[in-house]
Amino acid sequence: MKKILYLECKTGAAGDMLMGALYGLLTEEQKVLFLEKLNAISEEVCVIPQEICKQGIGGVHMKVEINGEEEGIAHTHEHSHCAEHSHEEAHMHSHEDDHEHAHHHEGAQIHNHHHHEDEHVHVHHHGHHAHTSVASILEKISVLDMSDSVKKNAEGIYRNIAAAESKVHQTDMEQIHFHEVGSVDALIDVVGSCLALELLGIDEVQASPVCVGNGTVRCAHGILPVPAPATAEIIKGMPVYCSSFDGELLTPTGAAILKYFVETYTKEMHMEIEEIGYGFGTKDFAQLSCVRAFLGYQK
């Protein structure tokens, strides 16, 4: 029989929502290993799975702390930045419609750092959003204590984001500098999702058509339509639709993870369900906002 993962994205998807839903499918032993691996990325990083209830439904929110402070205090739109764009633009991120881990005004910049003869990711806080290049992100991933498969998949996801951003900004990938997408908690979301999928041993990833949201989103380039340009580029070829209410439901990181892993999009599941995981983000709507992950077998 074929082991199937079906991702229900009726209220979009963000990196933390996907990671939380996948974490909910792991066995207790796998959860211990998962957290050990993620928390070994840096001494400054602490990933804490929180069992919470929204609208009476229990699920998981993946809390990421940097030096004891939670990432995700203010809601921001994750995006990249062309190298020539002004520093003032980098501060214009705040809006209320993002699911993703948000980033407070002091952006986090991460660097490779030798500690006890091992490679770690070291986090520095600055009074501005960090500009993280594609090469820098790929280098950080390459030194992680993860399997080659996890690192390859994480690198592939970031390359897809960079390719979309380079097309939107009409510049080379080498000139793209990430902001929120390049932050340490976004890196945790991507690597964590890749690690969870490896632990689950999935044969095929399927998903529902994806809701992108509606209305507009405020980011460094002003007020833009939903889906934001980079997200719109990433979701080419994916079945998507707009919501009946305003809000950015699908983030660039969420879109990139789905684009990389999902092989089949279908409105109907055809499997014998074994486990269900609910992944929550930080934003609430009138409709329950979550990614629901179904694990099962298909004959």
Automatic annotation (TrEMBL):
Region annotation (Disordered) maps to: 76-115
Q: Which Pfam families match?
A: Ni_insertion
GO terms (molecular function) for this protein are: lyase activity
Residue ranges annotated as compositionally biased, kind Basic and acidic residues, are 76-108
Arranged from A to Z, the UniProt key words for this protein are: Lyase, Nickel
Keyword Lyase recorded = yes
Q: What is this protein called?
A: DUF111 family protein
Protein species of origin: Eubacterium ramulus
